[in-house]
Structure formats: C-alpha cells, structure tokens
Design brief:
Length: 28
C-alpha cells in the first residue's frame, strides 16, 4: 500500500512495515 505524505513524497507500507523510497533516503 502506497501512502502519499505530500506531493512528491510517498511511503510504502509492506507487511505492516514502512519502507522509505530511495528518493527519500537522499534527503534523510
């Protein structure tokens, strides 16, 4: 399931765990 936090920022919830897209890993 993909949740849009804000335009251009999405998080994927897989098996109850939140995974951070590679695009966000560059920011964090």
């Amino acid at each position: 399931m993909r949740i849009t936090v804000f335009p251009g920022c999405e998080l994927d919830c897989v098996a109850g765990y939140w995974t951070v897209p590679e695009s966000l890993s560059l920011v964090s």
